């Protein structure tokens, strides 16, 4: 079969569209023929050796896949051949077929597309965990989302509204701000003079929960815009700059800095993760959240697509499709 292969930790353009062995079927393995493959910012960090995890090389990157079951192990009972399913794991999704453990498989309900399922797994999963468990967002609180037109940012906007928050979305261009507004944001802002803008739109109170997948100068502005008792969530560093936090700000403003590592959460708290996914799927079926799919591309185009995401050129979820996929 064909897959995107990282021969070594190297620049994204060195990824290869090449032959790769078919998945092995163990006792609890589910083999999924991909109809949609999710592309995520951490995939680009991983192939360059810049992520927290460094798998043995060569490897196939990719965390999200949705499609149909083509084979199952002898001890698999939750799904059968022909079922529509989705799965999230740390590696292996940029391929025509993926073998995953049964515990990582989620049956797809009627009415949910494979592309939307991929978006719900990592992007919405990260934001849901961040706002519910880590940020403990409450109805009526003010949520500020940086990078609000990205995958996790748009998810945070929609989930924030589903949880009853007043949502301020921050994005770099008018086009991206329009996308965030369409996703339900109450207020949209740019990054210029962000600290002063947050003070103005919150009436001087500051932000209750800050959501930051960007880092750099945007983090600094958001930290200075936090309110008393606030929770500033560290999601990632899409700007490429990891900020240095002046801890005196947390002291005088009385807010908490909270790290969010969704991948570790899914492994350390699998039952809570499962409950989160049930809630997300319920919100999706009720129309409370709806992923924004920017576009679908051929699997062979993965290096170019991933490079654009790393340069913050995408708004919404980007999907890869193997040749001949439905």
TrEMBL record:
Single GO molecular function: oxidoreductase activity
InterPro entries given in the database record: ADH-like_C, ADH-like_N, ER, GroES-like_sf, NAD(P)-bd_dom_sf, Zn-ADH-like_protein
Pfam family, one: ADH_zinc_N
Lineage: superkingdom: Bacteria
Signal peptide range: none
Domain Enoyl reductase (ER) residues, every copy: 10-320
PANTHER family: QUINONE OXIDOREDUCTASE-LIKE PROTEIN 2 (PTHR43677:SF4), SHORT-CHAIN DEHYDROGENASE/REDUCTASE (PTHR43677)
Record's protein name: NADPH:quinone oxidoreductase family protein
Organism lineage string: Bacteria, Pseudomonadati, Pseudomonadota, Alphaproteobacteria, Hyphomicrobiales
């Amino acid at each position: 079969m064909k897959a995107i292969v990282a021969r070594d930790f190297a620049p994204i353009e060195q990824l290869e569209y090449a032959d790769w062995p078919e998945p092995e079927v163990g006792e609890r393995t589910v083999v999924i023929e991909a109809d949609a493959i999710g592309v995520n910012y951490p995939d680009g960090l991983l192939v360059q050796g810049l992520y927290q995890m460094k798998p043995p090389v060569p490897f196939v990157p990719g965390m999200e896949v949705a499609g149909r079951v083509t084979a199952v192990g002898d001890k698999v009972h939750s799904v059968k051949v022909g079922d529509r399913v989705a799965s999230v794991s740390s590696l292996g999704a940029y391929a025509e077929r993926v073998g995953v453990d049964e515990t990582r498989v989620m049956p797809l309900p009627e009415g949910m597309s494979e592309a939307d399922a991929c978006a719900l797994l990592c992007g919405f999963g990260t934001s849901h965990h961040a706002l519910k468990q880590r940020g403990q967002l409450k109805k009526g609180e003010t949520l500020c989302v940086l990078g609000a037109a990205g995958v996790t940012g748009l998810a945070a906007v929609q989930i924030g509204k589903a949880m009853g928050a007043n949502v301020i979305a921050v994005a770099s261009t008018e086009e991206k701000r329009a996308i965030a507004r369409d996703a339900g944001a109450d207020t949209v802002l740019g990054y210029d003079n962000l600290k002063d803008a947050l003070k103005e739109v919150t009436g001087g109170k500051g932000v209750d929960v800050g959501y930051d997948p960007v880092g750099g100068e945007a983090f600094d502005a958001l930290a200075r815009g936090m309110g008393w008792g606030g929770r500033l969530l560290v999601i990632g560093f899409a700007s490429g700059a990891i900020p240095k936090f002046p801890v005196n700000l947390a002291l005088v403003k009385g807010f908490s800095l909270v790290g969010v590592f969704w991948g570790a959460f899914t492994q350390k708290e699998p039952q809570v993760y499962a409950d989160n996914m049930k809630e997300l799927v319920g919100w999706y079926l009720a129309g409370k959240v709806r992923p924004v799919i920017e576009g679908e591309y051929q699997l062979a185009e993965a290096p170019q697509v991933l490079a654009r995401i790393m340069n913050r050129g995408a708004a919404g979820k980007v999907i890869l499709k193997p040749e001949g996929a439905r």
